[in-house]
Write a structure and sequence with these properties.
The complex is a heterodimer of chains A (234) and B (399). Chain A has 234 residues and is an alpha/beta fold. Chain A has helices spanning 49-56, 79-89, 105-116, 120-133, 149-161, 179-196, 207-210; strands at 7-16, 23-33, 38-43, 64-69, 72-73, 90-93, 167-171, 199-203, 215-220, 223-229. Classes of the chains: A alpha/beta (234), B alpha+beta (399). The interface between A and B is medium-sized, with 29 and 25 residues.
Chain lengths: 234, 399
């Protein structure tokens, strides 16, 4: 990748604990990701793939190293500035869905827009449109408890893309779903990548799911072991 | 930002109705208990002073010794000569009634009853605002002769004569028989719960000779015109100091009390009781607060994850905190208002039941409201503050 990379990590390390008990989860990650790419991050548990995702998503901070997002050094941003970066450029999909309980699908989807300070009419329209794009237009009044796992993950995807983010970060989005539902979710994510040009970073340990990506990065023991393009493809 | 955050806070309250209800409940009970207790206590105090002033504001009581209550603390008691001196030399003293009190068992046929027996003159009745229901008061001749006649109260009538007319009947007091010549109109319970109608009044001399065997007396003085009461009080004090040979630098060994002072003495008791009840109720407010803390701590796992989600999708720490603050303030204010409403209802009902006046006390309403709000905010807000300070990923992973 050239200097126009959307994301550039250099020498990123992350250490948990201190002294004797210290554990180095990341041992110097160098990575650059271009806009519009679909990247799958693979590796066994403990390989550092989730830690990397959390750092990329500004949900966690690295111990050392440099992270440039659109040329901006993230490690120099304040806590609030990192929040604003998430608010304006990033969308998240989690393995455990992480929807607000007892809250309707529509209200869950419009929540990021509330924090953006969008007016109510615009919020409703955008949230309805996002639910339509994930095929849940008839379920907007339902709370997470009334939805299946696949439907909950669709709501989560709608919530992630309702702000038209630059990057969609998905941490094992199909980890809690059966194979058929997993494929539908991957089709959806893939569609947002192709039609709207949203950069997708996805952590998975299932090779079947990684096939949807154009680039696969393998982590072993806190290091990038292999970085391959078009491994399989769609 | 404020408007949106308010929206989020109200949504959150509406969505978690059970949690909101339990949070409010603790505050409601605490606030209602404190306000009700204090309001009823104030009502009781008021009713005590009301009843004392119903005795007449122009009444003075003179007792030997400095204490109010039985025993004169070694101070010499008054004699008939003191009563005469006050009657003759103090022009403002309209009626001067010497009073001797004792208790005795009174008997009529098979009925007997233990009551208080007061010895006095016919001045006792107008001085104490007593009216006759039947019969007459004793005459001067009867007073001077120390005749065995008596005027009885409604309670004594009921216990000894049932529904019969007692006038003309006989009661036995200790060793002697006594003719009932009059029945007093009922006055009901006194402010201290003492039955004022449980009384037998006889001529002073009769009680002194036949029951107590001494010349000691107190005085009840009703003063002409309420405005001169302080002047009369001072005159009586000077006269009695002189008669009792009290030197200039010595303290009085007697007390002249007007009804206001009697009221103060008695209401100080109910005030202490009010404070005690208030303290008990304050404990229930505190327990309510601990209840809120429990609810908050139980829901902290869910709420920590919620905070993690909000932070992840772009909520600033201060927006999350403001939301939780608003939630806490709204819930505890609501609890406070419901508590005040409940307390008003309960106070009105109980005041009616107890026969004490309902007095709205703005201070206690305000104080309990502010206290409840503070509890809600402290216990609702501070756990949230800790969660909002976490890295979003740590909040999301909170188990």
């Amino acid at each position: 990748m050239s200097d126009s990379a959307l994301i550039r990590l250099s020498g990123i390390t992350k250490t948990y604990g201190r002294g004797q008990a210290a554990f180095q989860a990341l041992k110097g990650i160098n990575l650059s990701i271009g806009a519009g790419d679909f990247v799958a991050v693979m590796g066994s548990s403990g390989s550092g793939k989730s830690t990397t995702m959390n750092i990329l998503g500004c949900l966690d901070v690295p111990t050392s190293g440099s992270y440039l997002f659109q040329g901006v050094p993230v490690e120099r941003l304040s806590r609030n500035q990192r929040t604003l970066l998430r608010r304006n450029f990033l969308g998240f999909v989690f393995q455990g869905f992480n929807l607000l309980a007892r809250t309707t699908a529509l209200e869950n989807v419009e929540l990021p827009l509330v924090y953006r300070g969008e007016p109510a009419a615009m919020r409703h329209a955008a949230a309805r449109s996002a639910l339509q794009q994930v095929g849940l237009e008839d379920w907007e009044g339902h709370s997470p408890a009334e939805l299946s796992g696949g439907q909950q993950q669709r709501v989560a995807i709608a919530r992630a893309i309702v702000t038209s983010p630059a990057v969609l970060l998905a941490d094992e989005p199909t980890g809690n779903l059966d194979t058929g539902t997993s494929r539908e979710i991957m089709e959806l994510i893939s569609a947002f990548n192709q039609k709207q040009g949203i950069t997708v970073l996805m952590v998975t340990h299932e090779p079947d799911m990684a096939k949807y990506a154009r680039r696969v990065i393998r982590f072993v023991d806190g290091r990038v072991e292999r970085d391959s393009r078009d491994e399989g493809g769609v | 930002m404020l408007w949106n955050t308010l929206l989020l806070a109200l949504r959150s309250i509406r969505r978690n109705l059970m949690r909101s209800f339990l949070t409010i409940l603790g505050i409601v009970i605490g606030v209602a208990a404190v306000i009700t207790m204090v309001t009823l206590g104030n009502g009781a105090t008021q009713s005590v002073s009301d009843q004392i002033s119903s005795m007449g504001s122009n009444l003075l009581m003179v007792i030997p010794g400095q204490r109010f209550g039985p025993g004169s603390g070694g101070a010499p008691s008054f004699k008939s000569a003191d009563v005469d001196a006050v009657r003759n030399q103090i022009s403002g003293a309209e009626r001067v009634a010497p009073v001797v009190g004792t208790s005795a068992t009174v008997v009529n046929q098979a009925n007997n009853w233990s009551t208080s027996v007061t010895g006095s003159t016919s001045d006792f009745f107008p001085a104490g605002n007593w009216e006759m229901a039947a019969g007459r008061v004793f005459s001067e001749t009867e007073e001077r002769a120390g005749k065995a006649v008596c005027v009885i109260g409604e309670t004594v009538r009921e216990k000894l004569f049932g529904r019969q007319n007692p006038v003309g009947g006989e009661i036995r007091v200790k060793q002697f028989s006594c003719e009932v010549i009059g029945l007093l109109k009922s006055k009901g319970q006194s402010a201290m719960g003492h039955d004022q109608d449980d009384i037998v009044v006889m001529p002073l001399r009769t009680v002194q000779r036949r029951l107590v065997g001494s010349q000691d007396i107190n005085m009840t003085i009703s003063v002409r015109g309420a405005s001169s009461i302080d002047a009369v009080k001072q005159q009586i004090t000077l006269l009695l100091r002189e008669r009792r040979n009290i030197g200039e630098n010595q303290d009085d060994d007697f007390r002249v009390m007007d009804t206001r002072q009697i009221a103060e003495t008695l209401t100080s008791t109910t005030k202490i009781l009010t404070m005690l009840l208030g303290a008990v109720a304050a404990v229930s407010l505190l327990v309510g607060g601990i209840g809120i803390m429990n609810i908050m701590l139980v829901s902290v796992t869910e709420r920590t994850r919620e905070i993690g989600i909000r932070l992840a999708i772009g909520a600033l720490e201060r927006e999350v905190l403001l939301q939780f603050l608003i939630e806490a303030v709204v819930l505890s204010s609501l609890g406070g208002l419901v508590g005040i409403a409940l307390a008003t209802g309960a106070s009105l009902f109980l005041a009616g039941l107890m026969g004490v006046p309902y007095i709205f006390d703005p201070a206690i309403n305000l104080v309990s409201f502010l206290f409840s709000a503070a509890i809600g905010v402290i216990f609702g807000f501070f756990p949230a503050r800790r969660a909002a300070g976490l890295n979003p990923i740590d909040a999301l992973r909170h188990e």
